[in-house]
Amino acid sequence: MLNVIINQRDRFRARLRDTEEEVRRLKEKIGVLTVELEKTKADNVKLYGKIRYVQDYNSEKVVSRGSKKYAEDIESGFTSDVESKYKKIYEDDINPFAAFSKKERDQRYKELGFRDRITLSSGRFLLGNKYARTFAFFYTIGLHVLVFSCLYRMSALSYLSNGPDETLTGDKILNLPHAL
């Protein structure tokens, strides 16, 4: 009985080693394929750039990148999904100013203090969200109405306590009535 269990254990160990080796090989293969996929994607973006150059050269007109419609496929007359996918990647990659601007913005954000980051984040939230802007607007209006009504009430109470003909003088101390 012990020999059967030992043989079974050895078979399971051998099978486990084989499975672990296969998993290792598959992970290596996935790594190689991922690198190859990234290279292929970069090659496709470069190829799309060359296609754009040839199309612009053949059309013999100056075209700005921002105002140009999608490049049309010569055979079919419409833009393919693959071409539009690589067009976006190409346009994002070719714009060095946007990348530089984003890098500078990130650098400045990292240099901010804690309180400044909170202020910037809350400002972005308030300005970037329609409902937050609406709430802030009505909240501000409500606060102004509250302050103006308190000032009006205080001036009315002051007027009633002094009377219409009395003037305030420096030697007279007035106790204003408090609201009940």
TrEMBL record:
Arranged from A to Z, the UniProt key words for this protein are: Coiled coil, Membrane, Transmembrane, Transmembrane helix
Q: Domain CASP C-terminal, which positions?
A: 1-157
Look up the domain of life of the source. Answer: Eukaryota
Transmembrane ranges, per UniProt, are 134-154
Gene Ontology annotations of biological process type: intra-Golgi vesicle-mediated transport
KW Thylakoid (keyword) present:
no
Q: Is Iron-sulfur among the key words of this record?
A: no
Coiled coil segments of this chain: 2-43
- Matching PANTHER family, A to Z? CCAAT DISPLACEMENT PROTEIN-RELATED, HOMEOBOX PROTEIN CUT
What name appears for this protein in its UniProt entry? CASP C-terminal domain-containing protein
Q: Which organism is it from?
A: Punica granatum
